[in-house]
Design goal:
This protein is mainly α. The chain has five helices and no strands. Helix 4 packs antiparallel against helix 5. The longest helix is centred in the middle third of the chain and has 16 residues. It starts with 18 loop residues before the first helix and ends in an 8-residue tail after the last helix.
Length: about 110
């Protein structure tokens, strides 16, 4: 009996879309600016997937982009890896301070880690 050959291509996400399609859908859903799109695209693919699958702002969030930037910073900080997202204002601050400030500005409760 012959075993089926394994494909050398990575499996598609559970959504059935390619990673690029998932990214474009995410960008359209949240109506992200060009600079935020660039920040997303600068992330390593595994961190990008964490952002795409884990970003769920509460209904009524006033500034989705600021919250997303904070979320990206928290993931890069937590994993000890950088991918390029920076503070929209360009100021330097610790990741924890930035996330706390972003969550406060966006009227969102921080998730338990």
């Amino acid at each position: 009996e012959q075993k089926p050959q394994l494909s050398q291509t990575p499996p598609e996400p559970a959504s059935g879309n390619t990673p690029e399609e998932d990214l474009q859908s995410f960008i359209q859903r949240w109506q992200l600016s060009a600079s935020t799109q660039q920040s997303l695209k600068a992330l390593p693919s595994d961190l990008l997937q964490m952002v795409l699958s884990g970003f769920h702002p509460k209904a009524g969030t006033r500034n989705v982009e600021a919250l997303l930037h904070g979320y990206m910073r928290s993931i890069t900080s937590r994993t000890g890896r950088s991918g390029g997202p920076s503070s929209p204002s360009g100021t330097a601050m610790s990741s924890e301070d930035a996330v706390d400030e972003t969550l406060r500005d966006a009227n969102v409760e921080p998730a338990a880690v």
